[in-house]
Every structure is written in C-alpha cells, then in structure tokens.
Specification:
Length: about 290
C-alpha cells in the first residue's frame, strides 16, 4: 500500500469517527455543560459541597493559604473561601437569571411587535432601542441602581434593562427575516390570519436564535452583576457574592493572592462556559 493510500485511509477513518461522534458530546461543549451544572448545583444545594459556614469565621484562621482543611484558603476574617464561593453561587446565578429573564421577556416582546407589525410601531420601538443602545451599559446600570437602591435584585433588574435593546434588535431582525420567507407568504395565501401565521410559523422559526443568545447574555449578566458588586453597588457584606469576594480580597492581593484569584477564576470559567454553549446552539459551531 502506498503512502497516498495510507493518508487517504487515515483521512477517511478520521472523518468517519467525526461523523459518528455527535457534536453535543464534543469535549469543549461537555466541559462547558459540566461547569454550568456544577455552578447550578452549588446554587441549589450548597450544603452538599461544604460544611463550612459562609459568614462565620474561625478565630486564628485569618488569611490561611490553600491547604488540606481549607482547599482555597481563608479570608481576612477566617472564613473558608471555598464555602463562600459555593454559597455565593446562588446570589450570582439567581441575579443573572433575573436579568436574562427580564431582558428576554421585554426585549423579545418589543422585537416581535416591531418585526411583525412594521410601519409606525416598528419606528417607535426601534427608536427606543437606539436610545438604549446609545447609553453605555455600565452607566445605565449605575443610574438605575441609584434610583432603585443597592442589592442583588436591583442590580439584576438594572442589568436586565440594559439587555432589553439587544434582545429586541435580534428578535426584530429574525421576525422580519421569517416574515418574508416563502412558506409564510404561502400561509397568508392559504387564508391564514395574522395571529395564526405569527403563532404557527413566524415565532417558532424566529425565536431559536433569541434563546441561544440568552445563554450568551447569561454569562454577560454574571459578569455585569459581579462588576456592580465589585464597585459596591450590589449585595452588601457579609453576603458571599462573587464580585464582592473579589472586591474584599483586593486589599490583600500582595499577601493573600487567593482571595481574588479563585473567585475571579470561577467567574471567568462560568462566563466562558455560557459563551461556549451559546456559540454552539446559535449555529456558530467549530
């Protein structure tokens, strides 16, 4: 057998196994799902993963380096850092969920109205979207928090409002694309009413990218809420929110690097995992 035949056989075998192996079971995607699953389990059942308290410190155990008894070390008050990260998942993830739900619901509704009705309704909605997009997201979030007050819920509402414009613009573009497709025109020609065609044909075929985009916004919401907490506009101490953990450890970064490093790594991993999942199901697969 010649070298060319061997290369051809190897290439055929490689393509064969890539066709057999489902995309859903690719290592990168599975690792992303595993990361999100662990974070969700932390949020729902934190007591399964640690016996340490997230708010009560141990006398004489201040700023201990990572060791057997404290896997990720302790903070300046002797509290186990791993326990605070685990218990803080519920605050960070619930806040991100509220933000995404608000942006998805309101933004999609506005986008569907603009894309389906068109005309003056579309102009009014899109001008509102342009105004929201013209304001920097962090500045808008801070302005809303100042009006509503500090706290995880208010920070989540602020982040959700800033994401409405992105959801509305995407939903509107998808609805317009589907509305001008041949099968929708055929449905109208067959006697279908506006609401029947909208419900049966336009919405099912236009909301898939919006739902995939919500996974991307989930990661962005976690990052935005952590940023607000880092700046002091989120959950007040001693609540173990991820952004607050990073903020509390920044004063000891030269002597206790783990106080900022490990919470930061957790935030980055969860955000990257959400982005990977969104990238896969939005059609941009690699």
């Amino acid at each position: 057998m010649s070298l060319a035949d061997l290369n051809s056989t190897h290439k055929t075998t490689r393509l064969h196994w890539r066709n057999i192996l489902p995309r859903q079971f690719r290592p990168g995607l599975m690792l992303a799902w595993l990361t999100i699953a662990i974070a969700i389990l932390w949020a729902l059942f934190p007591g399964w993963f640690t016996d340490w308290s997230a708010t009560e410190g141990v006398a004489g155990a201040q700023r201990l380096a990572p060791q057997a008894g404290h896997w990720l070390g302790t903070d300046q008050l002797g509290r186990d850092l791993y326990a605070r990260i685990v218990w803080g998942a519920s605050h960070s993830l619930s806040g991100a969920l509220v933000a995404v739900a608000l942006g998805l619901t309101v933004g999609t509704l506005l986008g569907v109205i603009a894309g389906a009705l068109g005309g003056r309704s579309e102009s009014v909605v899109m001008r509102l979207v342009d105004v929201l997009l013209a304001i920097p997201g962090l500045l808008l979030s801070l302005s809303i928090i100042i009006l509503l007050g500090f706290g995880t819920v208010n920070a989540a509402i602020a982040v959700g409002i800033t994401s409405i414009a992105n959801f509305a613009r995407l939903a509107r573009s998808e609805v317009v694309r589907v509305r001008h497709s041949e099968y929708v025109e055929a449905a109208y020609g067959s006697g279908g009413t506006f609401f029947a065609v909208l419900w049966r044909h336009i919405l099912p075929n236009s909301l898939t990218p919006v739902l995939a985009f919500s996974a991307l916004q989930f990661g962005s919401a976690i990052l935005a809420i952590s940023t607000l907490s880092f700046l002091g506009y989120g959950t007040p101490p001693p609540t173990p929110e991820w952004g607050l953990l990073i903020a509390e450890g920044r004063n000891y970064i030269s002597t206790a690097w783990w106080l900022t490093t490990f919470p930061g790594i957790v935030v980055v991993l969860v955000v990257l995992a959400a982005n990977r999942i969104s990238h896969h199901y939005s059609g941009g697969r690699r």
